[in-house]
Amino acid sequence: MSESVQQNLQSQPQILPEPSGKTSVAAPSVAPLVLFLDIDGVLHPDPCFQEKAFCSLPIVEAVLVDYPMVEIVVSSSWKKYHTVTELREFLGPLIGPRILGVTPDLELAMVAFPRQTECETWLRANRPDSLWIAIDDRDWWFEPGCPNLLLTDCTVGFQQDHADTLRTLIEERLS
């Protein structure tokens, strides 16, 4: 984690006057950062055989362990077949508890960039002031040049070079 991010997170709390004349301590405010996480083509190749299931999860975890303030929303077709509780179990003890929920299931044929629209719809309803990043393997589900998209190759999923890019994207948004 960069020094600027650490300083932002560790800034001194402010002393605020209350209407009664007493003072209270307010925690430093940091706009949350939401990571929209696809599964197939990101956490493992697509298509995936059982022995490769979630093979890229440790690489994602290695990044996110350094950024506990990053919240996670699953933006995957898995939301149609699994509950949030099941998704948390699949993603394990490091990432699972950080899952806030899943993106809404929109009528995909009705929008030009369906995954981006799902992410933005979820943000408006739940974290309107948050910055965001999406990790996905389908660039055509996002506006061309979407600065919030970290694109993976579906045949291999999230790799070490993606980890470096994810760190950079997080640092940029939190600084």
The biggest sheet, with number of strands, parallel, antiparallel or mixed sense and barrel status, is: 5 strands, parallel
How far the N terminus sits from the C terminus, by CA atoms, comes to 10 Å
Could you tell me the number of beta strands?
A: 7
CATH architecture: 3-Layer(aba) Sandwich
- Radius of gyration over C-alpha positions, nearest whole angstrom: 18 Å
The number of helical segments is 5
Total separate domains: 1
CATH H level: which superfamily?
HAD superfamily/HAD-like
Helical proportion? 25-40%
CATH class: Alpha Beta
Average predicted local confidence, pLDDT: 84
- The global form is globular
The topology string of helices and strands comes to HEEEHEHEHEEH
The unreliable regions are 2-30
Strand order of the largest sheet: 5-4-3-6-7
Structural class: alpha/beta
CATH topology group: Rossmann fold
Proportion of beta-strand residues: 15-25%
